[in-house]
Design brief:
Blueprint (H helix, E strand, L loop, with lengths): L1 H9 L9 H28 L2 H20 L8 H19 L3 H20 L8 E7 L2 E4 L7 E2 L5 E2 L4 E4 L4 E6 L4 E4 L4 E4 L2 E3 L4 E3 L1 E12 L5 E4 L3 E5 L4 E6 L5 E7 L1 E6 L6 E4 L2 E5 L9 E2 L6 E3 L4 E4 L5 E6 L7 E7 L9 E5 L3 E5 L4 E10 L5 E4 L3 E6 L19 E3 L3 E4 L2 E8 L4 E4 L2 E3 L6 E7 L4 E10 L5 E10 L2
């Protein structure tokens, strides 16, 4: 019996008396701990909230632009102020539309513009630059309503506009080396965006109408149209056209590109020789395969002909599988703005008379069974040099005078990229650092040169006339780190 009592006593429970005041103290401490944990969780959550990030960026941008507005240096930075204000307005509009990532990017760019102006630093790190202009080409700054005639020294920044006329065309180069070739009757907006996560700018344009061909290097580029967004992958080339009805056509000529509808959905991938269309509302067509261009055989690249009534230039190219016909184009411009010849041929050959002096460019595209032209081949050049009748001083070896060669100062368009430009005798061949460059019919030439070495770099320019007489000049380009 005693054992049972002992067992029972070991299973008994002890009770403790706690005052009401003590319970209140414990409850308060527990509440404070929960409040602190909740606050920490909320802060951590809000830091990754796109809406909160956008609000913070807009507040910082507004503070920066207010500081610039009250600074005594404002009159000297009115353009920067207007650009910063425009970006801030875009950020606010994007925020109101629920596009928080776009709002944050625009606000960060606005803040950068304001603070750069306040620090006295130059804000001329342009987004794009003209490297070739032909015919009627104009641009409009984002802070102005005036259109100005484009030239090689016109920098382009986010929000600037470019338009071309009936005979206008231009080449734009972005900071990463991507090339945008703009065709006639085009209207587009430079639309570079700052990625807040990487602090890098994306290279993009907003096409309203017209055509553009984009050739990328190590980075991708973007073209936005009324019905689509086209991302051209690195080391690729794609042609994008927007007609007057706002319908878009996309044709990859090298590498790959992705086409996404503005209405949403999965992107459509196109490879070289493939095409997809987008309606103004964003409806994408099935991918269509086009016939690839033929290989060109003659004339050889840079072949020279002597101008004469009986001089004939023979064009030949190889047959392309699946082609029903071919489109031959000859132009005085490597942009093929105006055409000397634009002929459809069922055979793989054609001929033309060489009765005019100058440098000419030619290319051929394959026509499919449905009559649609696929990508054109890479162009070749040939030159027609002057003379009287069948003979010229150059052809007879009587010309002993070296050609005139006049060079402009090298022009930096950003980073290690420079424009080397000059004039020489019409019909002469020009080499820049042993690489042949295009020479216009009036003797003008220019070339974009990239220098990879920091410090002084030598540029050797050589002009050779049809008789073989050379003129050599050199320049020095100082590349800063």
């Amino acid at each position: 019996m005693a054992a049972k009592k002992t067992a029972r006593s070991s299973e008994s429970v002890d009770w403790y008396l706690i005052s009401i005041e003590r319970l209140k103290q414990i409850g308060l401490i527990a509440f404070l701990i929960l409040l602190a944990a909740g606050t920490w969780w909320l802060v951590r959550r809000e830091r990754g909230n796109p809406r909160t990030n956008a609000e913070t960026a807009i507040a910082d941008a507004r503070q920066a632009i207010n500081a610039l507005a009250s600074a005594k240096e404002l009159p000297a930075h009115r353009i920067e102020f207007d650009r910063a204000q425009k970006k801030l307005d875009q950020a606010a509009a994007a925020f109101d539309s629920g596009k928080y990532a776009d709002a944050q990017a625009a606000a960060v760019e606005s803040q950068t513009i304001s603070r750069t102006a306040m620090s006295g630093s130059s804000d001329q790190e342009n987004d794009a630059h003209f490297i070739a202009v032909e015919g009627d080409v104009q641009y409009q700054k984002s802070s102005s309503s005036d259109w100005k005639r484009a030239d090689l020294r016109s920098p382009l920044m986010n929000g600037d506009w470019v338009k071309t006329g009936d005979t206008g065309s231009a080449e734009l180069m972005f900071q990463n080396g991507s090339m945008y070739t703009v065709g006639p009757n085009a209207l587009l907006e430079i639309y570079s965006q700052l990625n807040p996560a990487t602090s890098r700018k994306t290279n993009a344009v907003q096409m309203q109408v017209g055509s553009v061909e984009v050739a990328t290097t190590f980075d991708s580029s973007t073209v936005k149209t009324p019905g689509s967004q086209v991302i051209i992958d690195s080391d690729s080339a794609t042609q994008i056209g927007v007609d007057v009805s706002k319908a878009t056509s996309v044709m990859a000529t090298r590498g790959t590109a992705s086409v996404t509808s503005t209405a949403g959905g999965q992107p459509v991938k196109v490879a070289a020789g493939e095409k997809v269309n987008a309606s103004p509302a964003g409806a994408l067509s099935p991918v269509k395969k086009l016939v690839m261009p033929p290989a060109l055989t003659r004339p050889a690249d840079n072949q020279v002909f002597i101008v004469a009534p009986e001089t004939k230039v023979d064009f030949d190219w190889q047959a392309s599988p699946g082609a029903a016909a071919y489109q031959l184009q000859v132009s005085r411009s490597h942009l093929f703005v105006s055409l000397e010849v634009n002929s459809r041929r069922e055979k793989t050959s054609a001929a033309a008379r060489g009765t005019a002096e100058g440098t000419f460019y030619w290319r051929v595209g394959s026509v499919g069974p449905d009559g649609e032209i696929g990508p054109f081949s890479q162009f070749r050049r040939f030159r027609v040099s002057g003379g009287r009748g069948n003979e010229s001083a150059a052809a007879m070896g009587g010309d002993k005078t070296p050609p005139v060669l006049s060079l402009k100062a090298p022009f930096n368009i950003g980073g290690q990229f420079y424009i080397i430009e000059g004039t020489t005798e019409p019909g002469a061949t020009v080499f820049i650092n042993d690489e042949e460059v295009d020479v216009e019919s009036n003797g003008h030439f220019k070339k974009l040169v990239s220098f990879n070495k920091v410090g002084p770099n030598a540029v050797v320019v050589k002009a050779v006339d049809p008789a073989g007489n050379p003129t050599i000049q050199s320049q020095t380009v100082l590349v800063e780190e």
